[in-house]
Queue: 4 jobs
Job 1
Amino acid sequence: MKKTVAIIGAGPSGLVAAKTLLRSQRCRFDVSVFEKKSTVGGLWAVDRNDGDPSQLLNANMPTNASRFTVSFSDFAWSSVDLTDPNRDRPQPSAPDGSPFVPMFPKAWQVQKYLQQYTKRYIPESVIFFNRTVTSTERVKSDVGSPAWKIKWRDAEGVSSGVFDYLIVASGFFSEPRLPQADLMSQHGGVKQVHSSKLRKLKDVAPEDPSASGTILIVGGAMSGGEAASALAFDLSDAEHAPGSKARSGLKIVQVVPRPFYALPPIVPYQDSDSNAPKFFTLDLTFYDLTKRPPGPVNPGEGRQPPEISNFSHNSLRTLTGGDQSEYSSPAVVAGDVYRPAFAAIQEWYPEFLRSGAVRAIPGRVEIIDRTEKQLSGPLDSLRATIIHDGKQDVIDDVVGIVYATGFKPTAALEHFSSDVKKTLEYDPECHRLPFLLGEESVLAPNVDHLAFVGFYEGPFWAAMEKQAEFIADTWGKSSAQGEGLHSEDLEVNRIEKLRDLRKAMLANEKDVPQYWMGDYVGIIEKLARKGGVTRNEVGLEPRTGPVFGSRYVSSFGDATEAQKLLDDLQQVRTDALQKGRFVARAAFRAMQGNWKIRRQLDSRLPEYPSGELIGIASFHPRRPTDGSYDAEYLYVESGTLKTQQGLSMQASRRFAYRYQELTDQITVWFVKEDGKTVDYLYNDLLFDHNPVDAWTAKSDHLCIADMYRSEYTFRFRGMHLRDFAIKHAVKGPKKDYISDTLYER
């Protein structure tokens, strides 16, 4: 006889739980998924045009983990139709003819993935949309075994049903956390928004384009970095895009409670201490099995020992090329490397911090109020008081506030009865650890037939998949034996450790890591062993290479789809190690910001001057002015040229630099007389795949009768450029010279 299972939530965790139970070979499950929205996706259920005010993600926000991590083991991204509904053209093709999938899909693309995953694996009759669960209560079934009475509300009113099992898959990010929510009502004249609702600068900036003041970001780490970067990018775009108007009076200040590492999604993978490292995605670089000590790989969780913290800091500093002391924000420099390392991942964020476009200051916002002068005038600015190490700092021109204070899961837990909450030691004040659960945060001690999927900070898709398989195996065994799972079967000792961890969280102890259950590799390896799943070495040496879901396909999975993902990873990794894939992207990102330049002009013709130019150059990020490109800079240069004849003159020039992920290429373009609008192509950079002491790229350009042969040389220090040079050899009827420019910070 089938066992009935109620699953709350149709986000990634609920969908993979439903699919896994439906494909179980040990036991037949009758699955019902309750979803309060009208579509699948959970957090990723976004409107392409950001038209839904309830959504918590910007539809165009890219993931900070690669498509290999943001996927299930047996559904390849190449099987997903990613046609953009906003563009009247099909999904582009990669150079090999396959459908092009960005390495870091956007939120609306993730939703498409989940919709098509659902269509492939889950019958329509399984998911009930627009149905909100209002209460869950432990009862006995008709045969006397543990069961759950579920009440729900939908268009037809309030209904209920009894199920043998209950899975909570409603996510850990059910509601934005606003620790200073009262301030938002007290100071209505200044725009205030949670980071999950921030889409553009106008959401938080004053309406008056000439207004000046500080946009304050409260909070660090992931959401704080994303918010700060988004606002800095909008300000840069407003100043440097064609036809736009600068908002030069606004500045961005981010208050961070602890130091953190600002990281891009592409980092050095091999030879990271050389001038010409190989690059790969940040997630798969960290998830490489070669980084683990010998023996079975088990997850580390909870409070972090000093030696592990020190190892993490050293690993991160290898990527960043140092301790970040060269940034304009000393708040990001970690002084104590024996405390857990924190990180924020966003493509443009590191260089915004370096340039000062985002100023990060240490501390916590104690209060936001008004000065006496502000009280007597219109409500157009506020005062923020920040406390750090017992000292007080004040910002008295706050004209907008973004609360990057994270989320809380408590709203998704209110359906539980008080006795269940008590048994699970529910603490609504501890948003990071509201329940104390058993092994890998799946099963609940002393609460039979209850399980959780993805219920912890930073859940990974493959980990959720393994949690679902663990549930199917466990409940399949207990069903076959005709009995439930009791507390003695769980790791009760873990609960003691979690009590201690929760106490440390509430006391803000220094050894609590950014993600207390963030050992993705350990979780996957341990749960795979429990399920009898053997790791696929995909042609690698044993126990090497990055961990991701398709290396651990179980009997629940589709081997054909999994092989597509394995082949994709193999190709990407080979291209990264042998063909310089990601180098162009890494170089383009690292060019952002301000540089000192020194140019030598060596002319062989007397009528064309030789000399030296000393000046400054800036690569200003802006939105691509051509939709086929993924990133764009306006390059602005100015300096003083001194010729060998003793003449001195001011010189300036502008270009547009573009990057396209589809071709993994950088291009350089002339701009029109307005100094902003892209004109015609100048250089198309082709990188040499076999660097010696630096990465080099070449390009030729014929300008009427003059041939420009160009060489770009990039020398890295970790993820940053130590320096780079551009050399143009120009020959024509009236030109014969070499221009050699060195760029240094």
Note: The longest helix spans residues 461-481.
Job 2
Amino acid sequence: SNNRITTLDLSFNSITGTIDESYCSVLLMINNNKMTGKIPECFTCHFNDAYMKGYFIGNQFDNLDSIGTCSKFIKIIIIVTKPALSIIGQNIGYDVSDIYSNPQISFELLIEGNSNIIAFNYKLNRIIHNIKFKSTDQEFTLTPDPYPPLLSNITSNNQILLFKGLYYSYDIAEITITIGGKSCDVTDSTFYQITCTLTTYPNQLNNVLGIIRVDQLQTKFNLNLDKRDGNEVFNNYTSCLDNCESYSGNKCNYNTGICECPQCFSPNHYVSSISPTYEDGGLVIMNGWFGDINQDLNITIGNQECKIETISPNTITCNIGAGTGKKDVTVFQNGITWKSFNFFIYQLKQQICLNKCTDTSHGICDTSNGICECKSGWIGFDCSSPSNYNNDGNTNSTVHPDGSTTIINHQTIYNILITSLLELDINSDTVKQYPLQNNWNITSKDKNGKNVIFTQILNETECQIILSIQEIENDIQYSFAGLDFKLDKGSIKVSVSIHNYNYQSPLNTLQLHMISNISDTTSNDCNSKPASTSTSIFDNQVLNYILINKDNKILYGRFINRAISDGHTTLITTSLISSQNESVTIGINIPHCETSCYIDPDFSVLINSNFKTNCDKSKNHTTLIAILVSCIGVATIIILAGAFYKKSTKSKVIVFKLKKKIKMAK
């Protein structure tokens, strides 16, 4: 329609009749008339807004008190025509102040009611916006710069397929999916996922070529389709990122998912490590692979552009402004976008020590690294354990062939296990999982079994994982990833390195799962206490901890939020997967590293200050006292009872005689 009227005020006119949908393109003010029938849903679906509903009061409409569902909402897209940005769709409202955007977009003009709203002076950037419409309570995810659809995961339930990823559409009419030349009919779609039905299967089931097309942009992928008992398993698909084949002569290798450029050597870049800055901003160092061609290079951390200082094939330095917390990192060059969620963490200048080192008489906190410096007589990560209690030789550790470690102290048994390695996609969904326990091979072991090295090759891969477990026989100073700290005698140092892992996508990362728990033991002595767990896990802290407390003894696990990725130190995070009274599962989040990743946690069992060293003697002495007190108590009760009986009998006689005298007097 060429109609440019955006508002039509017909209130207080005694108008009769009905309203049809031809009025949906204008903000209609029709209150206080004599109109009847139904209000079109293009208006009623905005009736969460009292002002909108007020434009229709004072009539005899059948559905004035009903709120529509905006079921005819077809699509919403962002179109940028310099210097303006437009939102085009259906049922998007009549008031620019009704729209909220994060990051913020200042919408200024209603071009056509309920279908076209514009923002001027918009600076084009590669940012994903969350757009919310207050009147309909609907929220959408959009980007102003069109990208080809990005796949991260495909799952199925019978013939229904679910595609997860980015840069899809809310309009199913502009999405087509074919698998082996067979159409998968799209039934639902958002920015992040698409649901379709594959009614006819292709003749070829392995390495099937698929194409997903959104509007004018498409991505090819390969998958294995295994049809058994009505269940389909989709895996091993590959896709090239963004608009690979239309930039600088690039070609997509659909067997590997790598965007290749044999003649121009345009890189399929990634970031494997980041050296961040403090919360007031500063220089950021990124290591990885960026190649020799860096056309249109742009780096975004959170919502800020990181201004580039230097570029080399393996390292980029840039300056970022002030901020806090975790931020996404996006690197764009040569028409290709690489992104990692929550990869950058602003650092605190003042680190916090575990439990504030218990007390100033126990230790002092070094706020530069969050490590307690214990005073004489105290040891432990928080200086809470008396040193004289923890050197009695009652702590023993055993490394088992399955890669687990057992620490026994005064009948309390603690276990440390590395259970699995997960590959996570950009949405943190698991795309691969490898069980590690019971698959280790011992490659080195000292005669006492205190230092053991295990290795294993992940099933059907060339990835090697090396596990080193060492019992510390004497207090030592140790250094890892630029951090110096002390390892106490009897503690267990666990080192894990992962080599040559083949990721399904350059956007994917790894997560290593570790379990610490207590075996089922029974203790009847005076130190018997039920098991409990606690954690101290913060992304912006250098050190994270888990604690398992039982029978006045504590298993401490210390996790350094740093790793060595492809030879460079980088920050990592630790996630609490599960926690129960006697068990804690931790996920160590490892970045995308091509050649090697190293992590280095350590554990120790310490006795707390409530522990009683002479529990048995104390118990026997207490028992004798209890028996003696009991005997004296029984004798006393017998004597008192006899005396009371005599006194009671005498009282009864006196009362009887008094009663008798009173009776005689009468």
Note: Residues 228-237, 617-666 have pLDDT under 50 and may be disordered.
Job 3
Amino acid sequence: SCCDGFVQEAEDLQGALVYLDDGALEAFHFLGGLPFLLQLGARGVCQLENASACDETVVWNGVVEELSRIVIVTSQLLSDSHRYVLRCIHTPLGTDAFTEYKDLLLQDVLKALTPEERLENSSGPSVTVKHLPMLCCAVTPRVFVFPSSAAFATAPLSSKREVSFLSAGLPAYDNGLAWDEDELPPAGATLHAHFLHDLAGQLDLKFDIFSLGPLAHLVGKQLTEISGDGFGRAKKTAGLLLLDRSLDLITPASHGDSLVDKIYSFLPRQTHQESTASVKRPSMDVRIPTLEEEKSFVLETSDETTYEIAGSLCTAWDFQGVNRLDILFEKRAKDGALLVRNWIQDILRQEEVEVSGKSRLVTNSKELFSLATTLFNSSAGLKQAGLVQLGKAAAEVTTAARVTQWEAFASAERVLGISAADGIETLASQLEDLIRQSTSDHSVLSLRDALTILIVGYALAGEYSTKEGGPFSWEEERSLKEAVTDAILKGPAEPSLDFLKGLENALEMHWEKEKTKAQNQISSPDDWSEDQWESWEDNDQQEYSQMQLKLELNDRIQELFNALHRVAAARTHYPLRETRLLGTHRGVINELLSLVLSNSDIPGLKHHSSTVGRFLKSGLGRFGLGQAKHKLSDHKVLLVFVIGGFNAVEVREARALQGDFDELLMGGTTLLTPNAMFDLLLGSCHL
């Protein structure tokens, strides 16, 4: 369905030079890639942000003709992408944006022509502006997200003016206040509603919309208004469950048992062009590193050309690879790694390649890497490149160091969960211990890691405390702040912390001074040099600079803890608190689907009726003939869409509770990891 829009425009692509921006390139990686566009007749494909006059010479289809057609595919708003098209438009676009943009683009092109060229072509080139629906990353046939640099993903989901603001990349939490009808909704809400409307059209479905969370209610309302009453040809109905990510910040910030989550957490991603967007999200295109010494992953052809098998996890034209990734979403980490090993061994046996070692119920990084190397060097190496990459990715994230680090995270989070259930009195001291231990030379976790766990700790504390101004006492929080301050002043944080931007030089000077001071303490006072005596005379100036640094650092740390207070408040207002046993934690999707399948009432869940539906409900109600109550369980197809994003653990939990649904699709703004949650809540996206 995602490719249908391009197939319908295949005539325009014949012989055209196609430009794709960052977001469109990322989406096409999952929609069939370059082979798909070339099959539709494209002359060549180039990146929009790096457009050059030399692109005219690009000919990939073997037909050398004069370039007469250019097709530009952008995932941005027209007013934002035009600087890459002509870089000279400043006129805002109105409601009839496509027509206005076409006219303005023609004006700019004609201005750039010489007088002679204008006489030859007075009307200018032919320009057509069309809407391309369903520009998304279809990670698997049942899981999709937005391209990370597309307007859908980078548009703000909330404003700092809101009292319940968490981050521009997350919906505001429910503070019990209704949305002001006179206030403009966040740009991200409108774009999400329009995408879901396009999705319903492409899938030929009519959504029966349910929502939970303030922004989800707003998106559901907008989607209902856009979709209208659905008169005309009858369409198949599907349930749509819209959820705010802010309902549950614990699950995506936790280190769950999932191989897919580990791959997206540990492995690097494709980098983007510099952007001024208010929300920056990591690319969905995972880059599997290939080291220079790994000669087994470099193919040399007869003409001495070398091809390096490195980069993406899987591609849409590798149908087996896409289905394998879909299966891995349902598996825990050890089961997933074992499954990858078995897949590789099965292919090797089919190719009559001897597989060394016995089949065991566990596997490790060394075995996976060895099998991936053997498969690549076999006759099926290129054909099974997707499986080679999957094996190498699994090997990368199952090394002893990474398994130890992930388990340290998971163990700390489990301990916090148990402590919170028994009472939050010991929670603050445990969090303080984690922060202080992170500065130890023998610690597996860094300071950034400890602060990521702090998100989980504050969210858990918020569930068991309704105190204003943070869940902990003033003394407990002061100790936490001092621990963070001491950890920062002790030495460089690896990796660096975004909320310290602007203080790097002052901190570098402080760390260097502390290092020199420690070295001087080792030597005898009699050995002091003249330079050291001169620096001692400058103590007053140094103490003043030190005081300035500490004051600025205290302000930054106060901002950090203000953000954590809002994390706790978001959990305090969790609408499903009363539906489960105190002391148990399950993700919001897990809890919701359990309630749906048991036909239980769900606090805060809203059903969005069309105009006709509301009329029938109110009109027939006067005669005691009200319509039956709508339920999600009435549908055979269900789409769960999380505004703000989801992780692989939630996909697995949702599928485990699929119940009577014939088809369960999972979609959202992005695929979240604990690192992404840190950036959204405590990193540069917020502070």
Note: The chain is about 45% helix and 10% strand.
Job 4
Amino acid sequence: MKPKSSSFLYKLLTLAVLLFSAVLFINATKKSPASTRLQDDAAGITISGKSNDFIITPRTNSSLTFKQNSGSGSNVNYVIKSYSGSNVSSGTLNFSGGTATATVNLPEGYYEISMPDANAAFGILSIAPFTGNRDTFFSMDAAMAQLQSTVGACGDMIKTLQRTGISSARERLFNYKPTSYDNLSSGSGPNKALDDIHQLYKQNNVSILELFQSGYGATIPGVPFPQNFVSMQNSWTNLFKKYNYSWGGVEIMNEPDLKGVAGDQYTAVVKAAAYIFDNAGINAPIVGGAFGTAPGQFHDACAYNGLLNNVDYISFHNYDKPALLQSTVSNFRSWLKKSNKEAMPLWITESGMPWSGTGRPVMKEDGISALEITMRGIEAKACGISRYSPFVFGYYKEGTKNFGMVGKDGTPLRSFAAYANAVKILSGYQYIGDLQNVPSSLKLARVFASTTNPSLPDIAVLYNDNFNPGGTVQLNIPVKKAVGIDGRNFTVNGNSIPISDGLTYVYLDPATANGAINTNTTASKLLLASKGSSKIVQSKPSPVILQYIYQNSNVSATTNRYFVSQSNASSFPVTVRIHNLSNSAVTETLTWKAADASSTSTNGQQNVTVNGGESKDINWTINLSQVLGAGSNKYLEVDANSAGDKQSIFLPFLIEGNMQTNLAMERVSFKAPLTDLTKWHKNNNGNGTANFSVVDNHFHMDMSFNNSGDNWSYPRFDLQNTNSASTGILVRAKIDTKSHNVALFIITKDNKTYWANNIFPADGNWHVIYVDFGDMRPYNNDESNYTISPGMIKQLSIGMNSAGTSNSLEVSDLNMVKRNNSN
């Protein structure tokens, strides 16, 4: 699911969304045809029967039956409208005994049957049943157990996936304890419900990508990753053996890069999963990642610790504009290439576009959602992504947003109709290049060709990022036919092609199209890079897994590293747990060293025997300042050696340095005049106050809050005269009392926000930290690909969430700097 935040920007964004929703509601009450938000459960009218009855065969009489829960016996007028909102037909529902049937006969496309007097509407998708081989690229994030109330409802939706040619579905069937399946009535209790859902998927030939987030054994409060792999093995093995028959893959945890702990922890869990699978004879592929951010230090730590040697595929989530996806894929390929795994298959397992409100979205919101989700998938196919799963099939409301691709009764929205037609049109097709000499209004013009029948037409996908009924685009190439995003046929007048949906499929004669296609594109190179997947050779999983038990050390655990203060670094406790998942005892020799040390180290050598099915902790006290040095990110390597086997972990540390240590590595590009209080702006929780002053020639802020709770304060500083050579920000600051989310923010001139969290502990002591621009991440920007440059920065913000009702922040330095070892 999409990550949420509780701090200040999220609240501001939420307020903006609420205001926007209020405007929509006011417009809806005016009954304007273009803005009325119709409900799919209003006035007591619901569908009578199955949701997949509203997926109909084109040009064939189909019956749609409705149930009236109030006003029994009355007649209700209805109108059927097209994807673009044009009237298609009308009629009257004659309710008798509480039900009424409308018989429809519609060509290909999406339609909405609405009952204006009852403020009700339902979606109809007219599409031929999918035939032929299904393209494994097209998947769906279904989340049946979370979003459906009965096994029967799950079955209806699974049949819809099968009918429309979708090959697999991402699920979370084990997110909850089995007793929670009491909510899924199947007639025989919770375990029967779980069995039934797996069997329904198998019967309909839709494989499951299971996102496995539970069953990891005992967890520790505040520790997001499991630390008892023996218990995890015991709880997983029989379960996996039972349900493996329906799986096309198992994704290990969700968005581990957003859990606030470095990548060595996640990789240890994946290594354990790899051994459990191998030992139990489970043949489902392991999918690693489910990353929520673009490659960075967390991902590097994962790769350094062996993630890519223990998974079959890498997955990530993307909510960017479709035209930005190419850069994100390029970044992931570059990250894989550093580990000689450039061709490893990449899956996008979440990709959505929400709409506001409940019931059904207004037409424009629905159209934008359909456009974003569908074109992002088409762009993923062009760039060599192996699987794409839109988020999310079922009706799913999250705060003021709704990510669902169907309404409450399961009838389709435009987003599902558009995606289903992409499956129909592009299954078995592969990207071959871009259409040349197209109007500048087009953002993308990707061309695809059949992989099985060269005589079939090439298909150009025209995309202009604009849902604009009535819009057209001019092409200078003969067109066989043009099809809308929902599959409806367009009338082509000469070279004028309708593009009212923001996306149009144009069918071209391959012989004519050949000279009009540019095959030397970045997307072509990315597609080529993905073709060497068969060369990927994975290592045999080991039953011996090392894990750093970081809560035993006095560290600030962050996504990128473990932050160690100077006062703790000289005598630093390190605990490493050895998990032995085999049935036999192992004897290991453990040592540690700086990861960049060239010689074999025997530092802290300890010999230990661990019985089969047990774990044991090994402890050292290490002078990290001496081993790793201060002021920059370094890895501590811990090795376990036994006969014929070596297992290692690499722990990313940052030892705090003082200003002198840091300035030896940096050149100050710009020193912010922090004592100019006119450049500071208050930015805190509404139940508190902040007072600025100058103390000892430093910026000082005192905060007080009316009550305990989300007591945040992140004052903003106006930045000017930044230097383009800067690589990051050097901060010297202190926070008086306990706080969390001690963070540095960048606010850009186009009002995007990036942040680095947990940058130093709030303990009343001065701390010096260098924050590289490359380590900062988008903050509620819904970006996966981005670059931060000094010239784009408008403001800096630094602050915290105070644990108490009063606190203080003091900042002596907030400098733009260039590290000497940076390019």
Note: DSSP finds 15 helices and 50 strands in the chain.
